[in-house]
Amino acid sequence: MAPHLKKVVRVFVSSTFRDFVRERDVLGKVVFPRLRKFCSGLGLSLTEVDLRWGVTDEMLQKGETITTCLSEVTLCAPFFIGLLGERYGWHLPPEEETDAKSGLKTRQASHNDVLLTQALDAAERQFPLVGGYRDRSVTELEIRHALQLAETRGNDDAKRCIFFYLRDPGVASQVPEGERGLYSPESDYAGRRLGELKRDLRASGCATLDGYSDLDILGERIYQDLCGAIKGYFPAPEEMLDYEQRRQRHLAHAAILSNFFAGRREVLAKLTDHVSSTVKYGKSCDFYYNCSPTWPNPACLTTWPNLWVFFLSFFSLFSYFL
Q1: Angle, CA of 237, 240 and 245, to the nearest 5°
Q2: Residues with Cβ < 8 Å from 66, sequence gap 6 or more?
Q3: Looking at CB atoms within 10 Å, which of 123, 275, 285, 311 has the fewest?
Q4: Collapsing DSSP states into helix, strand and coil, what is residue 255?
Q5: pTM exceeds 0.85, yes or no
Q6: How far apart are CA 291 and CA 306, in angstroms?
Q7: From CA 41, how far away is CA 248, in angstroms rounded?
Q8: pLDDT tens-digit series, residues 13-48
Q9: DSSP states of 128-184 as a string?
């Protein structure tokens, strides 16, 4: 199995942003590094998708926000983490909020409302689900899409890879007073919609931790949940020889390195020329590269098979790192 055929675990993290900074920091600094090591031992590579860093102003102005989010949920399926507190997330104001005498809306559409409407219009063309939930938050759309994808698989295996973690509302009293507004519903409407969503999640059949308050306990629970889901989704052979286990770990390491490689096409071309002029059909051949600043580094060597897949179709390639 060449590195470009490597199994990759992608985990989507969904939540509102500013009120979940602490939880996302625990995920990024504690949970995912441990999980990456766990996956490597199974011959897998891990990629976490946290769109707190992935949505740009340009995407926002072009109305691509929701399409990007739902596309990433699809790519990560079935692995999905949903974190919910007391904030509902970015949503359009309810149409029923009108003045009793004039019948006019009591709140004029803001620039953000216009941007969200554009994003909903664009996303609905690619994801029909959006049409039935245009009055819901972007966070709820991510969750509904993940659940819909699990339903289309027609079995419970996908649902076993979806996890929801509902924060104890009392946590708001533990944060600095100036931040407590971030831990409250945006409006009565948002609080009502959020309550309905949490009710649906509790009845969804997906594992749900209800009422957490300790971040260390949360982090350990997420780690254990994902370890179990990954082992269940990528079952290892009952008996794997020691050399095969080591090979799988090296492949996982190669996949991680290649994720951070760009450019250096001239070096990759030299590698191809060197190998093609040396290897004889039907013969095995070993190559040893001592990496230096001017010659292939490990990331370059692991990326090479992905870019020269036609050439490698004539050979079996095994990489090993010392």
Answers
A1: 110
A2: 119, 120, 122, 123, 127, 130, 138, 141
A3: 285
A4: helix
A5: no
A6: 19
A7: 8
A8: 999 998 999 999 999 999 999 999 999 888 899 999
A9: GGGGG-TTS-HHHHHHHHHHHHHHHTTSSTTGGGEEEEEE-GGGGGGS-GGGGGGGS
Please give the Cα distance from 131 to 57 (Å, whole number). Answer: 24
Distance CA 243, CA 54 (A): 38
Cβ atoms of 255 and 302 within 8 Å: the answer is yes
CA 320 to chain centre: 28
**Domain ranges (residues) in the chain:** 3-233, 263-322
Q: How far apart are CA 208 and CA 230, in angstroms?
A: 17
Q: What is the pLDDT of residues 146-181, one digit of tens each?
A: 999 999 887 678 899 999 999 999 999 988 888 888
Q: How many CA atoms lie within 13 A of 127 on its CB side?
A: 28
Helix residue spans in 203-297 (DSSP H): 215-233, 242-258, 265-278
